[in-house]
Description:
By secondary structure, the chain is mainly alpha-helical.
Amino acid sequence: MSAQPTKAASSRYPWMVLSVTSLGVMLTLLNVGTLNVALPVVSAHFHATATTANWILLSYLLFNTIFILIFGRIADMFGRRRLYIIGLSAFTVVSLLIGFAPNIWVLLVLRAIQAAGGAIVVTNTTPLLTDAFPAKTLPKGLGINVLVASVAQLIGPVVGGFFASDLGWQWVFWFNVPFGIVGVVWAMMTLRKSSTKGTREAFDIPGNILIFFALGGAILALSEGSTLGWGNPLVIAGLLAFVILTPIFLRVEWKSKSPLMDLRLFGQRRYAMAYASTFLNSFARSAVVLLMALYYETLNHASAFTAGLAVLPVTIGMVLLSPVAGSLASRYDARLLSSTGLGLSGVGVLILIFEVGPTSSFAVAAIGMFLVGAGTALFMTPNTSSIMTTIDPAHRGSANGLRSMLQNMGQVISTALSLMIVTANLPPRLQSSIYEGSTGAIPANDVHLIVVGFRYALIAMLVATIIGMFTSLVRGQRPVPPAKSSMR
């Protein structure tokens, strides 16, 4: 590749980068969506308890959340192209190995390693696009990226249900391998090195250690509180780790010359509210697909494949609204679009709260799920663009790492909290049925307990959506973007 690309080649390059990142996003998000509906099959294969079944999901989400922030910083220091290729390669290799896991503990360890590879891919995707696209067309590129993510979430439950039901749980992971190989080769052929030099700042080792144990403690406590009991020493230790280490982490980051998390961004209202809205939107939306899939498998005795089809309205809404959001984001302020998106999601969750029950109508529930997906799409593109286009190019990895970390933190806490709420008032004999599905008739009293748990979990999602609307509305006006860095 020549040092001075032609004008035609330069105009094509952003879209080639989009093709690279789209494949990476597709794989990493498919990995989450497929397991949401395949969880009962995987749990049954390994004879997992409610606790270990919970961690089949949470092990990936927890480590992915933490590593996203870490690798966002590393990408700014050492370069995004090389790190992206390493991450996608690791994700692909571990996907192959997971299918050979001999027991649940090996599976959990491999899921954590897979999460690191996925984190590298996710944290570099948006900065690569922001570096490649001109400011005027960046919202369209980000909109298409969200569209691809939506498609991944659309087909994820169906693919996961099909593989788990017909081919075996191993194929929930093995299908990643051929696409991952293609993605690595295409990235090596396509991506250029950015002319923006790495920051070469010191690596924040104390910050990395503190955030790992603080977040790990919070997730451990939330996920195990309802099964082990809130007085259990392990649960108490998790809560204490979070409460004690979080303020220490914030103090260390504030004083650090090269912090893992740049807290000074929170001193600007527009960034602070955009980041807060990112967390709350993810918290409110992430558990909906999981909750509704488990609901249909538990109370309607649906197979994993059927449950995957049942939750498609969420991602259909995202697919249809993502291109619209990308177009509108270049003309209207993020405050209006993102707040409207959260409002749509809130209406969808409200519908689901009333429709969950033994006499519910799938048609009405589908409308609610569709609105959740449509609102999410309308929120994500303008909110992401408002952050990325006003950040110094040399620190886009860190800024996007923080955004992605908060998005994933919302997802992992939402998953842990919603499952805790659903199972909190259930006797032990029913807790396992939530994770493994139910093949027999459930007594009326037990059905009522399960339905109440699902409703309370959805109410928590609605409260988060309303708070997210407020934080999105109070952000400031659109600032002037900084000068764009050049590309080789």
